[in-house]
């Protein structure tokens, strides 16, 4: 794998985690599969417990909520491994983009990008510290408040997993292996989409700045720079298509499970809930809501910024230029008629309108379920 100095700086602990877990190592990814083996073999007992293990609806709701969070984290890990080459290619694109910005004429753009990197690094650190606090609360609450409960409830026919010493072994595996592994991979996957999108916003704004500067140039220089803008625009479009391919289906699964999880936690809140379980559920929901909100907000900004390209291209003094210049402008404007748009499975655009629709849908489902409970 080629050196990714800038990418490592931009993505911080998110990509370092993938490298440490061998998610990005084409020759040693079997190590990652071994690490995921234990979470994977817990899935059948989790579903067995959901199907057989409850007389109390409140406990069933909470166990379903925790199971979905952990299973989604495992699925994200598998997606990274299955699409390893595509992720590596996209990281390589970002790295080469940064190398191109080292040209003396790109001093301002490079300075802006470094400022963005500093803000992203601060966000990543805050996200990591918050995740660690959530993990500690999530993993060790059962043994502190209700010894005998597992982090994620399991059930196997003819086997009592709550008798010592089996209980202690299963609990430690969940607290020290299942929860950290699935949670950090869940969050790092979300963060990678957010950071890629932020970089896309930067690239789009950089193109806008290039188009604004063309009006002040002489004909030959303006045409040469406009041709570079056409190539640059194509690169941005390809970047957006790659993001859509890598993240679209998982985004659809995320919003579907998130909608269900929020709905179930609201139902749980209206029942005879247990305070420690409710507290864990609420902090996890708040954490996930923040991740989804930020991702959808930045994706919305990317779409809006890509639509502005056509207006800035039109505002260049193309009427006073030659035919070749006008043809290049036309290419940019035509391409900009279809804005960059990340979607959830190709069904819904990832923007603030969709985010609000998700929140409304969660409350609507809650109202329906509440009326039947």
Which structural class do you get from the secondary structure elements?
mainly alpha
- Detail the poorly predicted runs: none
Spatial order of the strands in the main sheet?
1-2
Number of domains: 1
What gross morphology would you assign? elongated
Overall mean pLDDT: 87
Q: Please state the CA-atom Rg, rounded to the nearest Å.
A: 24 Å
**Main beta sheet:** 2 strands, antiparallel
Percent in helix: over 70%
User: Gap between N and C termini, in Å?
Assistant: 54 Å
The SSE order reads: HHHHHHHHHHHHEEH
Query: What is the percentage of strand-forming residues?
Result: under 5%
Question: Total helix count?
Answer: 13
Q: Please, what is the oligomeric state?
A: single chain
GO molecular function, one term: olfactory receptor activity
Subcellular location: Cell membrane
Protein name: Odorant receptor
Main location: membrane
List keywords for this structure.
transducer, two-stranded antiparallel ribbon, cell membrane, 2 strands, 373 residues, mainly alpha, 13 helices, membrane
How would you concisely characterize the structure shown here?
The chain is mainly α and 373 residues long. Helix content is 79%, strand content 1%. The protein has helices at 5-11, 13-20, 29-35, 37-41, 43-52, 57-82, 84-100, 107-145, 166-214, 219-269, 275-314, 323-336, 352-372, and strands spanning 343-344, 348-349.
Fold blueprint:
Blueprint: H1 5-11, H2 13-20, H3 29-35, H4 37-41, H5 43-52, H6 57-82, H7 84-100, H8 107-145, H9 166-214, H10 219-269, H11 275-314, H12 323-336, E1 343-344, E2 348-349, H13 352-372
Antiparallel strand pairs: 1-2
Helix pairs in contact: 2-9, 5-6, 6-9, 6-10, 7-10, 8-9, 8-11, 9-10, 9-11, 10-11, 10-12, 10-13, 11-12
Keywords: Cell membrane, Membrane, Olfaction, Receptor, Sensory transduction, Transducer, Transmembrane, Transmembrane helix
Main location: membrane
InterPro entries: 7tm6_olfct_rcpt
